[in-house]
Amino acid sequence: MLLPPGYMAETSKGNQVSAQEQWIQQDKKRDALIERSLRNTIAAFAVRWLPITSSDDVVGLALNNPHQIQTMWRQARRDMLRIINRPSYRSMLSLFLFALTPIPMGISEDEEADGVSGQVCIHAALQQVQSLRAWQRNLQFSGSKVSPSLSSTPICATPESADTSSFINAENIAYWAAITFDTSASLTLNCRPLLSSGLFGFESEFTWKLVRTCLNVFNESSKSWCLGSAEMTDERANEIIAAAACWKLLVWKLAANFKEALRDGHDESEVRKALSQVSNSIKKFDATFRPFLDECYKRMQFLGQQTKLRWFSLMLHSHLSILMVLDMIEVVDRYDLLADLKDASIEAENTVMNALAFGLHNTITLRRAIDSPSPPGLPRESGTTRSMTFTVPLIAIDPYPHHVVASVQLMRKAIDRDYRNQKITQELYDSLNSTLESALKHLPQSSKSVQAARQKLSSAVRDD
C-alpha cells in the first residue's frame, strides 16, 4: 500500500499541534489550580481580621461559629500539598501566607501533627525561590526521580517579560521577602537558613554587603539633616524607617548566627565573636538610626497613620530580637554572656514595653467598600456602593501577631524578674501586666496561640 506524498510530514505536524494543544491545556489547568490555591490561602490568612472590619452581626457570627474559620484553614492546608511541587511566585506567596496563618481555635494537637506545618511551608517556599531564580537547569536526581537537563533559561511567569525592568524589580522584591522569611525562621524556629549562609560565610554574601552599603548611603545622606521635629516630614520619616528596617534584618541575621553558635556547640571563640557582632550591630543601630527615630516619635501626631504603623512595627521587631538572644542565653545557662548585652537588654525591655503601649494607644482608621442590596425589582447592578469606616489600635492589625505574643511572653518574664528583685512596686507590676493583657486582647481572637497566651498570662497574674 502506497501512502500519498507528504502524508508522513502532515501526520508528524498534526501530532506536534496536538501535543502543543495538550501542553497548553495542562498549563492552563496548572495555572488555575495555583490561582485557586492562592485565593483560598489569602482568605484563610485574612479571616482573622473579620471582626474588626465588619458589622456587629457578622462579628458575632464569626466568634460564635468558628467552624467556618476552621474550614478555611483546612482547605488552605490541603492546597499546600497541591502547590508544594508546582514552583511559581504565586505558589511561593501561598506557602508564605499559610505559614503566617494562625492555627484556629478548635484544631486539636493530633490534627496539627497530621498535616503540613507552617515551618514546612516556609522551607518549601524558600526552595521554590531557589529554583525560580536558577538559570542553569542541569541534571537533577534523587532516589525517587531523575529530572533531565533543560535549556539554560530562567523560569518566569511570563517569558516575554523576563528581560523587562518591571519583572526584574518584582523578582528582586520577592527575593528580599524570601530573605526576610529565611532570616526570621532561622531565629525563631531554631533552624538553619536556606537562602544564605549561617554562622560561617554570610559576610561575603551580596545580600548582607548590600545592607551595609545602605547604611553607608544613609549616613552620607543624613549628614545634612538637622535633628529637630520641625524637619521631620512624612516622607523623611518613611525614609528613616525603611533604612532602619533594612539594618534590623541584619541584626536578626546576626542574632540567628549567635543562636546557631550556642545551639550547635561551636568553640567558645566563635560564640564570643558571634555575640560581639550582635552587640556591635545594635550599637550601630542606636548610633545611626535611634536619634532620628526619636525625632519621628516627637512628631508622631503629625505623621500619617501608615507611618505610625511602620514605626511601631520597626521598634517592636528590632528589639524583640535582643530579647530572644537574652532568652537563649538564659536557657543554656550562659549568664556570663549577659554582661556584654547589659545596656542593650535594658534598652530592649524599655523599648518593647513602650512599643506595645504605643500600639495600644495609637489608632488607625481604614475604610472598606460595602455593596448595598439592590431595591426590589431592580437588577443587582443597580445597587449602590458605600464605605464603612472603622478605627482600631495599631496592634490590632499588626500582620505579625505571633511576634506580639512572643514579645508579651518575654516581657512577662522580665517583669516577674524585676518584681522578685523589688525593682518595681506592686502597683507598677499590676499596671505593666494590664498592658500585656490588653495587647493580647486586641490580637485576633480566633488564633489558638493568642488564646493560649491569654490563658497563661491570666493564670500567672491570678497566682501572684
Give an overview in words.
This protein has 464 residues and is mostly helical. The protein folds into three domains: 16-106 and 127-134, no CATH class; 196-370 and 386-391, no CATH class; 400-464, no CATH class. The protein has 17 helices and four strands. The chain has helices at 7-46, 50-53, 56-64, 67-83, 89-99, 109-114, 118-133, 165-188, 206-221, 234-263, 268-288, 290-298, 305-331, 342-361, 401-420, 426-441, 448-463; strands spanning 140-141, 146-147, 363-371, 385-393. The chain has a two-stranded antiparallel ribbon. The protein has a two-stranded antiparallel ribbon with strand order 3-4. Residues 151-159 have low confidence and may be disordered.
Number of strands: 4
Mean pLDDT: 86
Approximate strand percentage:
under 5%
Please describe the biggest sheet, giving its number of strands, its sense, and whether it closes into a barrel.
2 strands, antiparallel
Helical residue percent band? 55-70%
Principal-axes shape call: globular
Class based on secondary structure composition and strand pairing: mainly alpha
Kindly report how far apart the N and C termini lie. Answer: 99 Å
Number of domains: 3
What oligomeric state best describes the polypeptide chains here?
Answer: single chain
Strand order of the largest sheet: 1-2
Secondary-structure element series: HHHHHHHEEHHHHHHHEEHHH
Global Rg: 26 Å
Low-confidence stretches: 151-159
Please give the count of helices: 17
